[in-house]
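Review session, final week

We close the course with one last complete record, chosen because it touches almost every idea we covered. It is Beta-2-glycoprotein 1, a protein from Neogobius melanostomus with 350 residues. Go through it on your own first, then we will talk.
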Amino acid sequence: MELTWLLLLFSSFFFSITTAQDDEVCSRPELGESIKLEGLQRYFSFGAVVVLACKPGYTPVQGPRTIVCKDTGTWTDTKLKCIPVQCSYPDPPHNGQLHYENTQYNSTVNYTCDEGYFLTGASSAVCLVDGTWSAPEPQCKPISCGPAPIPQFGMIIYDKIIKVNNINYGTSGTYKCHPPFALFGKERAECTATGQWTETPQCKEVSCPPPENIENGFMSISQKRDFAYTETIKYGCNDDYVLDGPHIVCEKNGEWSQKPSCKAPCSIGIKRGRILYKGRKLWIEDLKPNQVLHGETVSVYCMGGDSNCGYEVLTQCLDGNLQIPECFDEPSAAQYSLDSGSLPSEIQQC
């Protein structure tokens, strides 16, 4: 009796399952990652209609948006597509950069700043389901260094007018020392991207020993003392000597700059002939005294070969030495006295 009752109970349970599977012929449809189906139902009956929707962050296109369970246990086709929501194209921050691959839902944009600037705000943002970004555009603000350090006995001259509390990256200036101190180190200073100024120079006191005189010349001072950095001394030359070079300056190494020299005048080494000096034609005996100063030029006259004409040849006095051109042919005493009109300086010029 008990065995018969168990067999009847098992047969009823098996019939119930078979009937349920016959009524629910379609299993839960497999949809794309962007399409959603409400509820947790696993099996659907023949003729059941299911409404499809897009997941948050996606927008539906085409259709229809329903599918039907067929008696074959399959679902009708759908052309529903869900495309990602698009966020607006972000703008790069001023003095910064923007990095991203696309602007659709769930994509990320990253912000960076140029050298010398730091980021204030979120460094990245994500495109949300409503087509907005998760964070507003950040700002790139300049790195500040504060006032430049000033060396003792020195100062800095900024390249532009600045505010004491707003000395930012890229600001630059020039260091100077108060006399008689000399600058040792880099003269130029700049606020760097690290928020620090470049190396600060030093101002050190510098002096030079009493200078020496120059040959055939004299100095503008007579006292024997040490001279401070940048002090200058002028020289002059005796008689007809010419000063060649500027005054001397006490330099930062404690030595004087190169001294000038006095250059000697030149005598014109011809006895007979005519010259061109300072725009005037002179017979050599009329040049008194017979000398020209260092650096001055003189022209002598040479014969133009077969053309029977004369031409000027320039020569210059260089520290007591004046070279007579090789083409110059000094006339004899007789020709010079009796036939001076035939000299190259007097005949037709080439």
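Two points worth writing down before the exam:
Residues 1-21 have pLDDT under 50 and may be disordered.
Helices lie at 2-23, 333-338.
Good luck, everyone.
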